[in-house]
Write a structure and sequence with these properties.
The protein is mainly α and 169 residues long. The chain is built from 6 helices and no strands. Helix 4 runs antiparallel to helix 5 and helix 5 packs antiparallel against helix 6.
Length: 169
């Protein structure tokens, strides 16, 4: 009987220790920004987005996303296919009101080195973000707005270098 009490006491202590460790870990994750503990303000609540690009469209788009390619020709071919998919989707009613569709447009513009189209799409995505509307997480290549700005700046730098190289050659 005494042995059973000791076992039960150890089990309860172990559970208490694990609970304390869990709470401390959760508090630490929250403090570091990995976990949000609280109630969202009305402006922070994610709203339903317009759906012009279906799950099938996302799947087909994901198949065209530039992932690993071994030659420049394969890279160019994938970028052309990606733009073709976006051009098809642009005919869908509500394309410009769906953040998922607009992100696809941004990504295709970047893949095809079209700075102006990428900037236009990014501007729309920033507006969606302010309204709590975001692209689908099912897209393979979703990145933050900051990363999107960085990609456009990189494209501008490449264009500038190419222009200077052609001008001096």
């Amino acid at each position: 009987m005494g042995n059973m009490k000791n076992t039960l006491k150890i089990a309860i202590q172990s559970i208490c220790i694990l609970a304390v460790l869990f709470v401390v870990g959760l508090a630490l994750a929250s403090a570091l920004g990995y976990v949000y503990i609280g109630i969202k303000q009305p402006a922070q609540v994610t709203q339903n987005r317009a759906v012009a690009c279906s799950a099938q469209d996302i799947k087909e788009y994901n198949e065209t996303v530039v992932t690993f390619v071994s030659t420049e020709d394969q890279l160019r071919d994938k970028a052309v296919k990606q733009q073709a998919k976006v051009n098809t989707l642009k005919k869908v009613s509500g394309f410009d009101q769906d953040p998922t569709c607009v992100f696809m447009e941004y990504s295709a513009a970047v893949a095809n080195n079209n700075v102006q189209a990428a900037q236009s799409a990014l501007s729309s995505l920033e507006g969606f973000s302010k309204d709590g509307l975001y692209p689908s997480n099912e897209l393979f290549d979703v990145v933050s707005l900051d990363s999107m700005h960085d990609r456009i700046e990189a494209l501008k730098n490449v264009d500038k270098e190419n222009t200077e190289t052609r001008g001096s050659g």
